[in-house]
Structure formats: C-alpha cells, structure tokens
Amino acid sequence: MDRRLFAMFETARQSKTTEIIIGQIRTAILAGRLAPGDRLPPEKKLGEQFQVSKQTLRESMRALEHMGLIDVRKGVGGGAFIVAVDEQVAAQNLANYLYFKDLTIENLSEFRRIMEPYAAARAAERISASDLETLRRLNASTRENLRCKHWDRVSRDEIAFHRLIARQTGNPILILMLDFVETLLEDFKKILKPDAGFMGSVMAAHEAIAEAIADGDADLAAEQMRAHVIDVEGYLARLKKSRAGKKLWENCLKGERG
C-alpha cells in the first residue's frame, strides 16, 4: 500500500468528529490525492491518524459508504475503497432532499427555462452523428409507444431525450443538475398522469427540437426548447390546479411512485 495514504489525514479531536473525518476524505478526493480504486489505510491506522475510537471511525465509514464515496469490502483483499459516485444515485439523493422543500412545478420550470435552451443550443453545435441517431431513435420509439399506448415507455423515452441533450453540454455540473430536474419532473408526471394529447404534443416538440439540432441551428434549437418547456409548465400547472385540495406529494410519500 502507498505509504502516502498513512500520512494523509489530521487528528480529528474537535466536536462533530464524524463530519471532520468525512470532510477530510472528501477533500483528499477533490484534491486528487485519492482516486476511485484506492484503498484507505486499515481501520487501526486510520483510527491512529484521526485519533478517534473504533466506533467513531466505523460510524464515519458507514456515512461515507451511504454517500457513495467508498465501498467497504469484506474478506481477503477487503477494506474501504474509494469509488466514483454514480450519477443516478447523486441525482436521486438531490431529488429526495427537494421532496420536502415545497417544490413546485414553477420551480422546476424556471430552472429548465434557463438551462435547457442552452443545452439544446450546445447540442446543435456539437452533437455527434451517433448521438443524433440516438435522439432520432428515441423519438421513433416514443411515437411507436404512443401508438401502442405504452405510457410508461413513452415517459422513459421522453426523459432519455432530455438527458441526452443535457450531456451535450460536456459540463458535469449541468449534466447532473438537469438530470435530477428530469427525475423530479418524471415524478410530477407519475402523480398528475397527463393524458395522451399532452404526450402527443411533447412528441411533436421533441421532433422539432431534434430537427433543429440536426440542422445545426443553435438559435432555433434553443427557441424550440424554450417553447417546449413553457408549454409543459403550463399544462402541468393547469392539471395540478384542476385537482385542487389534493396534496401533490401525498401519494409519493406513501410509496406510490410506481
């Protein structure tokens, strides 16, 4: 094992010891001193470095594992290994946090109006031939699933369409944020259950966006995306209002997210 790992951390004697340990390990990852696949020093050595009890150290390791930063393996060759946090896990954790913040459709749409037109413009400027073909396949799949009334598959394809466009920004912050906003929007749709007419209008908007991207017209792609986001916001807001008196998240919190 690399001996540099044994001298990486400082004593953790202050209050909130667990937070300090987590913070130091996260900082080491950010600074590049720890990378996915690296194994942390053995429990005894880590305890000596931080000068904490075995119980406190194990509590910190459990927290880091829950956050997705380490993987604790048993047996020969086991230990605590640094892992890359899964994008979907990170997005879902952010979504879970926002469920309890009186989130509104308008909150989501405000963010989408700012960021999604930018993503569409970037896609028009830089999308690869293979990604463009994937966009077209998603739209074709959506149209077929609409015809067959496979509503869950329609929703899956719609979300995948937006996520693929988000990835064209090449910016991991934007990709993550747009991804988890799509996750939240998907939950709104599961609860509000939009009708086939709405899904058809979304399909038409996606085809127009894909065409602008294929033509390399960044301004038109952004304009089409902005109009689409505004239309979706208006429809979902009206649908929610028509069901006045019903708490938007009550079914979600009862485990009916389907």
From TrEMBL:
> InterPro entries attached here?
GntR_C, TF_FadR/GntR_C, Tscrpt_reg_HTH_GntR, WH-like_DNA-bd_sf, WH_DNA-bd_sf
Q: Which residues form the signal peptide?
A: none
Q: Which UniProt keywords apply?
A: DNA-binding, Transcription, Transcription regulation
Q: Extract the CDD domains matched here.
A: WHTH_GntR
The reply to whether tRNA-binding figures as a keyword in the UniProt entry is no
Q: Entry's SMART domains?
A: FCD (SM00895), HTH_GNTR (SM00345)
Under the heading PROSITE patterns, the entry gives: HTH_GNTR (PS50949)
A GO molecular function term, named singly, is: DNA-binding transcription factor activity
Task: Enumerate the spans annotated as HTH gntR-type domain.
Answer: 15-85
Identify the Pfam families for this entry.
Answer: FCD, GntR
Domain of life per record: Bacteria
Protein name in the entry: GntR family transcriptional regulator
Please give the organism: Desulfosarcina alkanivorans
